[in-house]
Amino acid sequence: MSQTQRIQIGISACLLGEPVRYDGGHKRLPFADDELSRHFDFLKICPEQAIGMGVPRPTIRLVGDPDKPQLIGSSNAELNVTDAMQAFAKETTPKLTEISGYILCAKSPSCGMERVPVYDEQGNGLGKVGVGLFARQLMAVHPLLPVEENGRLNDVHLRENFVLRVVAYSRWQAITAQGLSSKLLEDFHRRHKFLLLAHNQAIYRELGPIVAEAGEINERGERYIKKFMLALKQPASTKNHTNTLMHIQGFFKDHLDADDRLKLTETVRDYAAGQLPLLVPLEMLSHYLKKYHIDYLLDQYYFDPYPRDLKLRMGM
């Protein structure tokens, strides 16, 4: 992946305003269509349309065992597209190697990531306990791929976390594409240090020994990225951000005078108390970083984990 190549994200086509839903409508997601589209390219897929179901079309739903449901017509039980959907998913998902994330359509019997309604053969609801057939196959084939659905992306913390994971995963894809080496792994780990500390300190401590090992690099890389993506999947807490900010603050102890040190300490404390957004102490640290050029911090992704104009840290 070159520096100029835009990151690709898979997405349910209806979320980009495509009129592909059963009623000819869409579920346009402004965050994707208006915001993410400035920096990311989308690979849009409508599984139901892809298996030959027209627009408009009969509605379908998950029926039977929630772990192995059938995909059956809501009003016509003779309409069964389970095999067609599974065949499409098994053929398509292994080819999705260029994407770095996926946004699915919530509650869809084909694309729902979680909490999709499931029914028994008599039409009685079993609860929101299902996963869309295409989504299930996608997540099984690409377990490390950052996946979210449109409804959850209304949450500012989940939104920020998803984009952060997409960009971080694309970096990993880039270094493995050029051929993973111990040096590349060391650099990747070092530059993500404070992001990892903000998300999961326990896993961060587990990753260091993997980086330091002398074993076969690809096997080490596989173990590393599994734990790395698991760490980032946990949204960063205020407590962990506070600890991380205080850790970074220590790098400036020999550069700041007493007044600046006090002001920085008070700003971090106010963030921890919920009186300031994360952006305020980060901007203060970024200012000092540019002024004093602390080498270890200059290329840390914690300060700029994704494009700034997405404004994802404004509400945190």
Automatic annotation (TrEMBL):
Q: Which organism is it from?
A: Zhongshania borealis
Q: Name one Pfam family in it.
A: DUF1722
Which region is the signal sequence? none
The protein here is known as DUF523 and DUF1722 domain-containing protein
Q: Where is the DUF1722 domain?
A: 193-307
